[in-house]
Amino acid sequence: MNMNRKTFIRGLGIGALGAVTAPGVLASVPRATPIALPAYNPSEDAAFWRAVKSQYSLDPELHYMNTGGLGPAATPVLKFYTDTIWEHQRHGEHGHDTFHKARQVVADFFTAESSEICFTRNATEGNSIIAGGLDLREGDEVIFEDHAHPGGSGPWFLQQNRRGVVVKLFTPDPESVEGNLARIRELITPRTRVIQISHVTAPTGIVLPAAEIAELAQEHGIWFHIDGAQSAGMFPFKVIELGCDSYATSGHKWMGAPHETGVLFIRKERNHEVAPIAAGSYTGEIPSHLPGNLIYDHDASRHEYATRNAAAVVSVAAAVNFQKKVGRKRIAAHGRALAVQLHEGLLRIPTVEVLTPTRPELRASITTFRTPRIGYSELFSLLMKDHHFRCRPVSEQNLDATRISTHLFNTAEECEQLLAAIDSIVRKA
Ligand SMILES: Cc1ncc(COP(=O)(O)O)c(C=O)c1O
Fold first, then answer.
1. Which CATH number fits domain 78-324: 3.40.640.10, 3.30.70.360, 2.40.50.140, 3.100.10.10?
2. Fewest CB within 10 angstroms: 66, 279, 358, 380, which?
3. Does residue 151 line the site of ligand 1, with CB under 6 A?
4. What pLDDT digit, counting tens, does each position of 389-404 carry?
């Protein structure tokens, strides 16, 4: 493992987490009994969200605020997943024939067509299919932000190493839509082939102006790809309104699907421009008697290949159905309201600086902050060890910060407790 990877993993606090989840620190407590989800009634908002929370098998002693890293699946989704595994194992079948129905459900979630949906294993794979599949030559340029997650930057650095693609970076502007457009515009040259953005940036939760950037890309005939690992399931949108040519996300974050799931959307008019980066069963027509040629399928599913964990794939549809039951707009409003509550509370704590934008169009359900009084790694450990809050340390670009994700199973009450915990740590530091 090289030092950068080591540094990044250390930055995520995985070492520290290993230590704090050792026996005796977070004792295993029986799971909460699920409360049937009531019809939403604004006058009983807190009771509704308590019922939602009870649908998760999270340890009741743990305040899980790291959906941006990994989102737990709700118990009904996990049950569907495990039942499906057993069913496939009972019959010795791989279950690929069940993809079709799930693909339609997932396409509806993004307001796309099912022919535009590819089931991947994670967002990195979706980004890699685009970076590896587009016909790029030495000297062709790609623009993305310097806050990109390794799952967003890695696929392009690979193309830099292998094909001589030139990476050009902009720093996201937390202040304005125009600022972001200007920073991208000044990097465009006649060799620019691709603009990629994180829909919501991983370190500080900036919502980048996708539709406006799409217009800019279109004006210059540039492929526009969105890394949506931090947006799908956080708030609803129609992928076509983002104006992108392709959009990749993880299932296992805000969507609440099982681990190792992802979705890649490719606009149907442009899928022919993305060659598969791996080929086998389901890529297209391969003659059964060799020699012969491989003829790619038209649909985005041609980027899927070979035997998969079908139970995980179709559980993405179960996760989508669970979100629909709770209410997608309601989930977005809840996560955002908690983020605003945190933002306002953090600003009352001496020395604390919030790095997430205040402007509503530039933010959603992530709140990142820092204080000169205590380093991110130590703060992360204290929050976890002494208060049982699982946040995410932000080591990227030396931001030295802490990221809090607020999703449907988080509550206003635990946000107050988190603020009190941060306040007491900062005052003692
Ligand atoms: C913006 C972004 N892209 C990509 C990834 C990688 O996700 P995955 O592990 O699903 O590939 C992450 C993970 O946090 C992310 O935040």
1. 3.40.640.10
2. 358
3. yes
4. 999 999 999 999 999 9
